[in-house]
Write a structure and sequence with these properties.
InterPro entries: IS1016-like_transposase, Tnp_ISXO2-like. This is ISXO2-like transposase domain-containing protein. The protein contains 9 helices and 10 strands. By secondary structure, it is α+β, with helices and mostly antiparallel strands. The longest helix has 19 residues.
């Protein structure tokens, strides 16, 4: 299975040729296994074309009725990359290689690599849109906000300050994350209600926008970071270490890449949320989003 491949060495060893990759992608339902001729409606045959395949409908041994690319009707239909190159990009992106590392290994421009990363993050955005609320009956959900300094196109002196609001369910490890225009209660509370089950217990710092959360959830406990890391309330040890660790994981690739475009930030957040929520099944979830419907 493609999702079980976690290195270029594994991919090359198991699927050394373009035709091997074609069969792999067919088995994953990422390429069509059959094709109909657009002219006559007959079934087409899969034929060799150079190092790859194409679909052909033949009138006779010497005359074609029509032909189709092996990529037709698939996620790959508009790419000029070979299927081997495209699959390498997917594998390396899933393993969190940088754009420059992917470009060098696959032999493509960094612009092409960035375009592909954008395509793959769009799948993450669609996947994220299917998620329900985190938390549940007495689940502890830690919430917090953080500031990201994004750069236009990842370069230059000018920066944008983007506030991100999010939370993590201690029991399941599931997260949510949204960019917000400000940190007012009128913005944060509706987002919290939309993303966290009301039966949850919420842990936060003492930011004033959280002052009325007991009205919307089973309970709400706070920790004052000016004086303590953990607030002991009976048997509860109230802290936000989990969500603060989440912010560290989020910011790490941004620091390595010297920021990103503010316009692309939402898609990066979606990728992060999917990686956090899908865990070892992340690459499979992306593959599922690419399957031919």
């Amino acid at each position: 299975m493609l999702a079980e491949i976690n290195s270029i060495a594994d991919l090359t060893a198991q699927y050394p040729t373009e035709k091997d990759i074609c069969h792999l992608l067919m088995d994953e339902d990422l390429l069509h296994k059959t094709a109909k001729c657009d002219k006559c409606g007959n079934n087409m045959s899969l034929r060799s074309r150079g190092s790859s395949y194409e679909w052909r409908c033949r009138v006779s041994k010497s005359q074609d009725c029509s032909s189709k690319s092996i990529k037709y009707g698939s996620f790959f239909k508009n790419t000029k990359l070979t299927l081997t190159q495209a699959t390498k990009v997917m594998v390396m992106w899933s393993c969190q290689y940088t754009s420059s590392q992917i470009s060098k290994e696959v032999g493509i421009s960094e612009r092409t690599t960035c375009d592909w990363r954008n395509f793959l993050r769009e799948i993450c955005q669609k996947t994220e849109s299917t998620y329900g609320k985190i938390g549940g009956n007495d689940h502890i959900v830690e919430i917090d906000e953080t500031n990201l300094h994004s750069r236009k196109y990842g370069v230059g002196k000018g920066t944008n300050e983007d506030w991100i609001f999010g939370g993590i369910d201690r029991e399941s490890g599931k997260v949510f994350m949204k960019r917000v225009v400000n940190r007012s209660a009128s913005v944060l509370v509706p987002l919290l209600q939309a993303n966290v089950e009301k039966r949850s217990v919420v842990y936060s710092d003492e930011w004033r926008s959280y002052s009325q959360l007991k009205r919307y959830f089973t309970d709400h406990y706070t920790v004052c970071h000016k004086t303590q890391f953990i607030n002991v309330v009976g048997t509860r040890r109230v802290c936000t270490n989990g969500v603060e660790s989440m912010w560290s994981r989020l910011k790490k690739p941004f620091k390595a890449a010297n920021g990103t475009s503010s316009a692309l930030l939402d898609s990066y957040l979606s990728e992060f949320v999917c990686r956090e929520n899908e865990k070892d099944d992340f690459f499979q979830s992306v593959i599922n989003g690419m399957k031919i419907s």
